[in-house]
Design brief:
The protein has about 220 residues and is α/β, with parallel strands linked by helices. Helices cover about 60% and strands about 15% of the residues. The chain has 10 helices and 5 strands; from the N terminus they run βαβαβαβαβαααααα. The chain has a 5-stranded parallel β-sheet, with helices on both faces. α7 packs across α9 and α9 crosses α10. The relative contact order is 0.09. This is Response regulator transcription factor.
Length: about 220
């Protein structure tokens, strides 16, 4: 049976000793190295081959584990599991974004051996609670991105162009809009041309629908 080579990166020495003792009881796991900082971990992985790295996310009061995880994922074939005392959704998102394969809360240490095996076997080992937080964070970022995009488009449009779009969306023709504003049809066509250039679309109705769908109107 192949033994899984594990490196542990942890700056809490008491917790490190306890984890080494606990994992040492698993016959298929082999602790091949340990480090107490992100930089030391990166340097260690240059000398030692590991299958799985258990990476403390918070060291020296900063989330340097995320930086170290990114370096290790890019430069080695090791699978990185993040360890933490807190279920911080922003950190969870950042950890997975840099390539970590799992995120374990230290109080759930009894689940760590199986998480290591899953990571080694290239199976997804994301805990359901972590997956839920990931989905929540992705939704939040998607909503934020949408809000920023809407603001950018709204800032591009002049107040008159927004009024023209609103009337188009309500079914008014360009002639009716010109009469309402007491301007020439040519002026309205210029406004529509500017709107299409800014919002895109093949027609004024399509641009108006897009503006409505995005919440600009």
């Amino acid at each position: 049976m192949n033994r899984i080579r594990v490196v542990i990166v942890e700056d809490d020495q008491d917790w490190l000793r306890g984890l080494i003792s606990y994992l040492g009881k698993e016959t298929d796991l082999d602790i091949v190295g340990q480090a107490s900082s992100g930089q030391a971990a990166v340097e260690l992985l240059e000398r030692v081959e590991a299958d799985v790295v258990l990476m403390d996310i918070m060291m020296s009061d900063s989330p340097e584990g995320i930086w170290a995880a990114a370096e290790i994922v890019q430069c080695t074939g090791a699978r990185v599991i993040m360890l933490t005392s807190m279920e911080e959704k922003e950190l969870i998102f950042e950890a997975f974004k840099v390539g970590a394969v799992d995120y374990m809360v230290k109080s759930n240490f009894t689940e760590i051996p199986q998480s290591i095996r899953n990571a080694y076997a290239n199976r997804s080992s994301i805990h359901p609670s972590v997956a839920a937080k990931m989905r929540e964070e992705f939704r939040r970022l998607k909503d934020l991105e949408h809000e920023v995009r809407v603001k950018e488009l709204r800032d591009l449009l002049t107040p008159t162009e927004i009024q023209v779009l609103d009337l188009i969306e309500k079914g008014h023709t360009q002639t009716q809009i010109a009469d309402k504003f007491v301007v020439s049809i040519r002026t309205i066509k210029v406004h529509v041309g500017n709107i299409l250039r800014k919002l895109g679309g093949k027609s004024s109705k399509e641009a108006a629908q897009k503006a409505k769908d995005m919440g600009i109107l």
